Amino acid sequence: MSSVVRAVVWGANGMAGGEVLRILAGHPSIRVEGAVSRSRSGQPVWHTHPHLRGSFPELAFCSPEEGKATGADIAFLALPHGTSAPLIRECLDRGMKVADLSGDVRLRNPADYEQWYGSAPLFPELLDRAVYGLPELYRDKLKGADLASGVGCNASCSILGLYPLARAGLIGDVRIEVRVGSSEAGATPTTGSHHPFRSRALRVYEPFRHRHLAEILQELNLSEEGVTLTMTAVEMIRGVQMIAHVNLSRRVKEAELWKAYRSAYSGEPFVSLCPARPSHLRLPEPKLVAGSNQALTGFTLHEDGTRLVVVTAIDNLMKGAAGSAVQSANLLLGLDETAGLGMLPVYPA
């Protein structure tokens, strides 16, 4: 790639698209050539994302036709599920690399789409071409590839928390509880996500399974019979907190768990293990990672050695979406994996 990589962001008017723009505003090697929004074409980007006025004072949303004419090297697709696949294929045919943020190519088995999303994938051949966009698991495959899939924010949080256990064969069965902020519902309010109905609420909206469970099962090689995923909307804007109640496959000592987690995440730029002490920092909360691409994970083992609680926290718009997309794009493009992603969490938030 040339020293300056040209990027176009589709769905740039949405929350995830806005986060991609925020990251790219400080990226040393990627320049935004177009911010596509069919509904807001011609309007200044900062009218929708006022925090970006200083970074993009002259940038206006462009039409899809204008976006395709930018001649960009890479496309970030922050589009709703079911709308990305045709554009993915078109971009690839044009010789562009693609960092998708949707769910259109995140599952490898076409039959899984019918089960979890209610319809078959539009272009199943893309599933084999896509690399799951979680660099902690697929760093080597992402290097030099041309398509990184989107990752579900709840799935990312759960996978990062449970991956060391799955890799060591320690998961017997697991009950996952995920607490999510309102930004996960997107920019368009619904009865469930609109502030007057959601504020001060603890609303369980998925008691047993959510479509992001498909990714968890896929990436951790688990059977659905031994996994449940409960989703709760909480009084928070940014953030995901995953609490996993794990029945281990055998009795272990805490030292073995530390070894498994340190082995899995030693040297990872964006995953940190919480300390055993002080106790109030052992199990993380999303406030500790707000605005960053960081993931925190901690655990505590029951005295019987067979029951474990794992807690992981991420910012859903960052490590759960735009942050992982840019991290994956850096690998696709042969850039420093951490480029543009050095922002620290905002605390207190």
From TrEMBL:
<dbReference type="Pfam" id="PF22698">
    <property type="entry name" value="Semialdhyde_dhC_1"/>
</dbReference>
<keyword id="KW-0963">Cytoplasm</keyword>
<comment type="function">
    <text>Catalyzes the NADPH-dependent reduction of N-acetyl-5-glutamyl phosphate to yield N-acetyl-L-glutamate 5-semialdehyde.</text>
</comment>
<keyword id="KW-0028">Amino-acid biosynthesis</keyword>
<dbReference type="InterPro" id="IPR036291">
    <property type="entry name" value="NAD(P)-bd_dom_sf"/>
</dbReference>
<feature type="active site">
    <location>
        <position position="153"/>
    </location>
</feature>
<dbReference type="InterPro" id="IPR000534">
    <property type="entry name" value="Semialdehyde_DH_NAD-bd"/>
</dbReference>
<dbReference type="GO" id="GO:0070401">
    <property type="term" value="F:NADP+ binding"/>
</dbReference>
<comment type="similarity">
    <text>Belongs to the NAGSA dehydrogenase family. Type 1 subfamily.</text>
</comment>
<keyword id="KW-0055">Arginine biosynthesis</keyword>
<keyword id="KW-0560">Oxidoreductase</keyword>
<dbReference type="InterPro" id="IPR058924">
    <property type="entry name" value="AGPR_dimerisation_dom"/>
</dbReference>
<dbReference type="GO" id="GO:0051287">
    <property type="term" value="F:NAD binding"/>
</dbReference>
<comment type="pathway">
    <text>Amino-acid biosynthesis; L-arginine biosynthesis; N(2)-acetyl-L-ornithine from L-glutamate: step 3/4.</text>
</comment>
<dbReference type="Pfam" id="PF01118">
    <property type="entry name" value="Semialdhyde_dh"/>
</dbReference>
<dbReference type="GO" id="GO:0006526">
    <property type="term" value="P:L-arginine biosynthetic process"/>
</dbReference>
<dbReference type="GO" id="GO:0005737">
    <property type="term" value="C:cytoplasm"/>
</dbReference>
<dbReference type="GO" id="GO:0003942">
    <property type="term" value="F:N-acetyl-gamma-glutamyl-phosphate reductase activity"/>
</dbReference>
<dbReference type="InterPro" id="IPR000706">
    <property type="entry name" value="AGPR_type-1"/>
</dbReference>
<dbReference type="InterPro" id="IPR050085">
    <property type="entry name" value="AGPR"/>
</dbReference>
<feature type="domain" description="Semialdehyde dehydrogenase NAD-binding">
    <location>
        <begin position="6"/>
        <end position="145"/>
    </location>
</feature>
<protein>
    <recommendedName>
        <fullName>N-acetyl-gamma-glutamyl-phosphate reductase</fullName>
        <ecNumber>1.2.1.38</ecNumber>
    </recommendedName>
</protein>
<keyword id="KW-0521">NADP</keyword>
